[in-house]
Design goal:
By secondary structure, this protein is an alpha/beta fold. The chain has helices spanning about 15-30, 50-55, 75-80, 90-100, 105-110, 125-130, 130-140, 170-185, 220-230, 260-270, 315-320, 335-345, 390-405; strands spanning about 5-10, 35-40, 85-90, 115-120, 145, 150-155, 160-165, 195-200, 205, 210-215, 235-240, 255, 275-280, 285-290, 305-310, 325-330, 350-355, 370, 370-375, 380, 385. It folds into two domains: about 5-185, Rossmann fold; about 190-290 and about 305-405, CoaB-like (Rossmann fold, 3-Layer(aba) Sandwich), CATH 3.40.50.10300. Bound molecules: ligand PMT.
Length: about 400
Amino acid sequence: MLNDKTIVVGVTGGIAAYKACDVVSKLKKLGANIHVIMTKSAKEFVCPMTFQTLSNNFVIDDMFEDPKTWEVEHIELAKAADLFLIVPATANFIGKLANGIADDMLTTTAMATTSQLVIAPAMNSNMYNNPIVKENISRLKSYGYKFINPASGLLACGDVGAGKLEETSKIVEYVENYFESIKLDEDKKDLKGLKVLVTAGPTVESIDPVRYITNRSSGKMGYSIAQRAAKRGADVILLSGKTNIEKPKELYKYIEIESADDLYREILAEFSECDVVIQSAAVADYKPKNYSDRKIKKSDGDLVIELSRNKDIAQELGKIKGEKVLVGFAAETNDVLENASRKIKKKNLDFIVANDLTKTGAGFNSDTNIVRIIGANGDVCEYPKLLKTEVADVILDRVENILSQKK
Ligand code: PMT
């Protein structure tokens, strides 16, 4: 089952370190290639030779010992990992990772990896419930790190409560399920044959060659949708305002725009070919009425800039929609459901994704979003805080469902 998988197991210094031996042994028996990295304090609990024997690989514990290969060891391991498992993870390790401290082999490798990092904490229950530890855990979760929550029970220190390393069999089961879900994900090409257009990021409305009006959109929501739709087999056209984030891979087409007028022009040029249009861009409703091609000089008095209405692009598309699925977003600060529902009708959308900008972890720039999806017939689905990639999948599932009902 785990034959072609490389798993890096990080062991930190807690009494539960001895249980990591069992995890390594079980994963090895399932066929995984295991590399163990130990912290200095982990070696106070278990000797490296035990892990070496169980994993059939050298144990890495020292950044500066004689290298065994010509490659930079922590980068080599960070790249090789299909999964990075920390078992057990102490409050100290969690605190370092959450605060970007890389001062030993394990923290540097963990920081350098782009593979999924899964953390199985084990510590005294008061430590686990300490608000600083809780905050560090939720910070790491918001960056996409996964946690295998500790169990409750009698701890090594004699206290009873949450903090006991989860059963080793359950940790191994988690790893197996993780790879199983990745495989399902890879096999799931349910959007194959569809052309999906996604708008993302902010628009920029120029006042003069120096100044402009824009908004706080980072593009993360739209890029997540484009990335997930491409992964699920769709031909994705991404129309994006200027952002600082990396362009998703495997796009069919990428077009950068600046103003709402640019977006309108480009979207019309692509529209007829598309099956689905998902509009997550934050489009300016107004632009300066008169663009000054010279820098506007300051004077002693106030400056008044007259604004004129931009086209409501979604509304225009709604008029020529045909059989296409149109999805809008609503960024609201108040009366979220009422305002968002009004936009569905006005723009002739199949559904709208409403985010309440007053909630922490929702809306602009964060890696997560908290959304409510409102259907054309008024049904409302509410979701907890999810990664934007997870919100993207929820949206694409709904699109897929609408399309399959139309068949
Ligand atoms: O980019 P991030 O930092 O990840 O942030 C994500 C987000 C908050 C920008 C995104 O989740 C979001 O809510 N996008 C829509 C923001 C917005 O402009 O909402 P609106 O309520 O003003 O517009 C409603 C819908 O009409 C949107 O689909 C919008 O693209 C569209 N619209 C708006 C104005 C306009 N002139 N033309 C349009 O087509």
